[in-house]
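Hello,

Our lab assistant flagged a job as stuck in the queue for most of the afternoon. It eventually completed. Since we weren't sure the result was trustworthy after the delay, we are filing this so someone can double-check. Below is the sequence as submitted and the structure that was eventually returned. Let us know if re-running is recommended.
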Amino acid sequence: MKNSTDNVFAGIPVAGDADVLASRFLGESDFAPATRRAFLMDYRKFGHWFVERNHEPLRWDRVTARDLSDFRDYLRRDRQQAVATINRSLVALRRLLGWLAKQNIITANVGLLVKELRQQTLAPKGLDVPIVRRLLREVELRGDVRAAAIFSLMLFTGARVGDVVNLELDDLVIGDRSGHAVFRNGKGGKQRTVPLPQAARQTMTAYIGTRPPLSSNKVFIGERGPLTDQGIRSLCSKYGAMIGTKIHPHLFRHTMAHQFLKDNSNDLVALAQVLGHGDVNTTARYTKRSQADLAQSAERIGY
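-- returned structure --
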């Protein structure tokens, strides 16, 4: 039995190189950093559960389909986690077990026998316009030109947090009447060019005029160098606390998508191009009703 402090399962009893194998899988797979972090946490969550439930160290050739289905039910019933989060955990485990099967380390991928939970497809939730106004007003009152540029960039382009932290000065073209940003390392390694509306051009220009003179070509700079993913999340948390609304970076992407469709006659093709979706069916989820919309519709029923 091992209890390595330098692996995926640090502090969790494992056997049969379960830790080394999981680390190898993550290292050899071409996952985005966010996906790798999410999968790592999923494996740790499963490891804790497996050891506690089965009273034995985690070993991949001892994982059964029943373990996975019981783990799924535990996340739903006891942890009350969202369906999407639970399904991601199942996908993470299925991918790892599939890799182990290809390596002939286990005889079969038992993850293929366990179904994901079904969920009603609703439109991803964005921020309401009054909340966006309150946020931008708070930023303006504090004279925070960097926050104004970051929030405007996400609100007007649908940029992911990775797009923002990887954006370089050479990726920006800003003129008096037009401009665009090139996001070179989008999800799946895709590159896309997105127009910058006037409001975004103004905030970006104002920020660049105050940007610290560093050798780094990254657009957004923090106290210790180029701004990181965590730096932007902290910025969202800071202003979310000020306006009394929980904010995270991806919420701006959803907000932009909803507003884009509203202001452009539901032009899904154009939105898909701006967001970098390879399949317009992915974009179509923004045309679905939100839970609040469905609740309002239900209240109108009369007999």
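-- support follow-up --
The delay was a queue issue, not a problem with the job. The result is valid. The first strand starts at residue 172 and ends at 174. DSSP finds 13 helices and five strands in the chain.
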